[in-house]
Design brief:
Two copies of one chain form a homodimer. By secondary structure, chain A is α+β, with helices and mostly antiparallel strands. Chain A is built from eleven helices and 26 strands.
């Protein structure tokens, strides 16, 4: 029998060739619609959401790992994430079997289908999990190098530790928001190089950061590191991340303890969590690591993901977005398994639903840089838009949309998008 | 009628003169005991815990703000914290009135008293709240100066931003643990100054940090800063904090994004949350702030707290602890109201149960330094213990206990203690 990843299988639900959500994807998310009560778990298929609560109520999710009524109770993905790969693979198989072209159960039951398959345009998406811990890495060598050159010159671009460990810091969990949330321009302290004292006001150097993130599946006990060979079993799936940044606030505040208010006003994520299972066919070799990392960071196999990433900008004066960056997840120097193994090597405990993001993903060419800071080189090289406008940093009314997908042979396994619009600073 | 803070009132529960928990304190915590089911909310009085679930079930918590059965349902303090000062003041008043020497309701009902008042020695304490966000400040000028001198010399000890804003970073919420939890020595990467490459192994420079922290009461909406004049209404109460630190790991990893694995293996807190109401009589003027901070950080009134703090060390070879530091919360340069106002000025949302810690609290004299890093001056001046041992950093078997109290006229409003013992590194 075909596996859920088989490129040949098709669903009875119509799926366009460039859709991000063919039957080979089946990403999980949390949604609601006004007529149907509170949030529940769904799976994206074509332009529809498959309601797992409805399937559970119809006794169509009978497996050996999860209780058949499991998804009647779930309002977020935390508990499902915590059940691990066996539960995820089972549900993925059950749903794939229900959605196949040749499977009559759902296809031929009009009343059930109408309940279970809801047009995506009619639902509201929520955060996929209660995120109690959010960590942001700094895993793109190109990004770290670019920022290092701007700060310290080309001779000392990478810090001495950078090639030895995946640098990271804790971000703010409470201000992770779902795609579509507007982002008011934050206030803060900034200090011009030639000013004697800091000033207060709305940030003038507002930026996006093109990132990807993963959700933790089963956690680990405090004091018990996860060996790198088991790291993938603790990862549920991935999303797109825009880690909004106020560069002028960051510059003044970040020494010596790292970014704080420059980042914690908002971090946006895409709503559909693409499982490691769906991404399996798109694993490739990552960049060669030289020097070889310490043993606890050494893994075998390919742990980079070939995910094409794009950033689109639409200004208040334009009616269509314009692509301003094209990067790829495969450029990341440190893999998600290395990130997770490093995070826990001191015994730090991860929990189901924790979010670990990659840091800005920049590629080797200027077109592939993942932030305005790099695209306009610290404001020194504002870039032109087709509207005739120029940008060094984000202006009020600018909408940033990040999209990403893996290109298969005749189909895509995609992430949808994460989008957000900059609003003028609120009165303070 | 006397207020709950009146030094003259006494409880029918015996309270020693040096007890941290007289009727003037009434701190809130979460406890369980094997015979009584799951965690519930309690209040410390003398050597007892008053069980608020039992009081609610006996209809003895009838007020105007909270539902009478509120504490039947609570397994942590988050929801109570979120209800704000009016609910807190009401419950405080109701409990004070029940515990007074001249109040017969509980005093003269033996069966009820036996259920409601449990010896503290018989209960297990839990984290007072589900902590979803933990922020650590760096608010002691003496500590920041000491560390700055060690790192950069006396000319550039304080970073340029330090006097203008309360520097902070996000810590790890999942690894905040309750007092009494043992702390295995963490593994990690370190690099000696003269080594060409980093090494891996157990941290050799393990440290404590003497801190205090506060729990957020009602939160704020994302995008809506809390003005400093309203900050206190968003603060529930305070605890003692020991922010364990691996200095060798920190030194190698922290550039440029701040401490990560050096801190997130464990942060210990004391179990009893002392309310701002109980601390009210001990508010004093803090250090003069020069330069005057920006308007959003200016507050009127006294917002420092006169809390005497002590650190005690007991080694594996000794049978009694020895005091190694005596500091005071009043030394903090940035007040808790300034911390909260700064944290939200960019719109960052705080939630009930979030923990904000002060950073290491060092005083002006060497005896008042709040970390081994400072007490033994980066390992260069190991200090002698009365047992004949010396210490530069913590050794396996060392137990660190932090205690703190406000000294009233004939009574103390105290925090109990936060304690933890260093275990040898686990096999990795």
């Amino acid at each position: 029998m075909a596996t859920p990843n088989d490129p040949a299988i098709r669903s009875f639900v119509p799926v366009a060739g460039d859709s991000h959500f063919p039957i080979q994807n089946l990403p999980f998310g949390v949604f609601s619609r006004s007529s149907c009560g509170g949030p529940r778990v769904g799976v994206a298929i074509g332009d529809f959401v498959l309601d797992l609560k409805v399937l559970a109520e119809a006794y169509l999710l009978k497996g050996k790992v999860l209780e058949p009524d499991f998804f009647r109770r779930q309002q977020d993905l935390n508990e499902f994430m915590g059940r691990g790969p066996a539960a995820r693979l089972e549900v993925r198989r059950l749903i794939s079997d229900l959605l196949r072209q040749d499977a009559p159960t759902l296809r031929d039951n009009g009343a059930l289908r109408e309940h279970a398959l809801i047009p995506r345009a009619e639902v509201r998406m929520h955060l996929p999990a209660r995120i109690e811990n959010y960590t942001d890495f700094y895993s793109s060598k190109e990004h770290a190098t670019n920022v290092g050159i701007m700060m310290r010159g080309p001779q000392n671009a990478l810090m001495p530790n950078w090639l030895h460990l995946p640098v990271a810091y804790h971000g703010r969990a409470s201000s992770v928001v779902i795609s579509g949330t507007d982002i008011p321009r934050p206030h803060g302290q900034t200090k011009a190089d030639d000013a004697p004292t800091p000033a207060f006001g709305p940030s003038r150097n507002l930026d996006f950061e093109l990132e990807m993130g993963f959700f933790v599946g089963p956690g680990n006990e405090l004091g018990r590191p996860v060996p790198i060979g088991q790291a993938a079993d603790h990862i549920f799936g991935m999303v797109l991340v825009n880690d909004w940044s106020a560069r002028d606030i960051q510059k003044w505040e970040y020494q010596p303890l790292g970014p704080f208010l420059a980042k914690n006003f908002a971090t946006s994520i895409s709503p559909w969590v693409v499982t490691l299972d769906a991404l399996e066919p798109f694993r490739i070799a990552g960049p060669k690591q030289d020097p070889e990392p310490l043993p606890y960071l050494r893994s075998s196999g390919n742990w980079a993901y070939d995910v094409q990433l794009e950033v689109w900008l639409q200004t208040a004066k334009t009616s269509t977005p314009e692509r301003i960056s094209a990067s790829n997840c495969k450029y990341l120097y440190w893999s998600i398994c290395q990130q997770l193994a490093h995070h826990t090597i001191n015994g730090c405990n991860l929990r189901p639903g924790d979010l670990l993001a990659s840091g800005t993903i920049s590629g080797p060419t200027p077109e592939s840089f993942g932030s305005m800071l790099e695209l306009a080189w610290k404001g020194t090289k504002p870039f032109a838009l087709s509207s005739g406008e120029t940008r060094a940093f984000l202006q009020d009314g600018d909408r940033v949309t990040i999209t990403g997908w893996c290109q298969g042979d005749g189909y895509r396994v995609g992430f949808g998008e994460v989008t957000g619009k900059i609003l003028p600073a609120l009165a303070c």
